Amino acid sequence: MQTLATVHLVRHGEVHNPERVLYGRLDGFGLSELGRRMAVDVAAWFARRADEQGRRPEIVAASPLLRAQQTAAPIAEALDRPLRTEADVIEAENAFEGMSDVAATLKRSPRLWPLLRNPLTPSWGEPYRQQAARMLATADRVKDEALEAGGPGAEAVLVSHQLPIWVTRLAVEGRPLAHDPRSRECSLTSVTSLVYEEGRALPRVEYHEPNRALLKDASSLPGA
């Protein structure tokens, strides 16, 4: 099948979070020193890929949150593209945002227990279906923009967050959206590529870990 366009969903790098807070959409959580290295390295990966293909992604955009913006900036610079913000690839909403030990807090706070009533939605945060819908709507729009600018084979980069990226992948692969967070294949600065092909209603998925060697030194908490 002919590839029409590819939208790369990039998870941000490691966050400076010594208190291990579930940071969600909170302001002020930027990249750690290792996270900044990850951002530079994934930018180099995209630059090498562009050199091999003889073309650059047409669009580089990121969630408005600091950690995503800091991850996307070196990518935009390496590809000589302006960095823009896409509000709908932001992290998921989460009622437990700001807690440093969610399990312990829940154990001593029965008033929070009703938030756990339906893990399939999930009841404590933004519904999985809503996350996937906003992510796919943005990816589809950006794909069309890239295709118009670069023609068949055009690419775009969206820097986002683990949970929205993962449920988007589950959605396009036709898998249930409810899941165990430990099962997510979406490591720091990983690249989940949505490959749009002629004749297919949904994109197929490719997955890459440009910074696999750095992951052993990284601290990673599910964002939502």
From TrEMBL:
Checking CDD domains in the record gives: HP_PGM_like
- Domain of life per record: Bacteria
Q: Which InterPro entries match?
A: His_Pase_superF_clade-1 (IPR013078), His_PPase_superfam (IPR029033), PGM_Phosphatase (IPR050275)
SUPFAM superfamilies xrefs: Phosphoglycerate mutase-like
GO molecular function terms noted in the UniProt entry = phosphatase activity
Q: Which GO terms describe its cellular component?
A: cytoplasm
Under the heading Pfam families, the entry gives:
His_Phos_1 (PF00300)
Give the protein's recorded name.
Answer: Broad specificity phosphatase PhoE
What organism is the protein native to? Micrococcus flavus
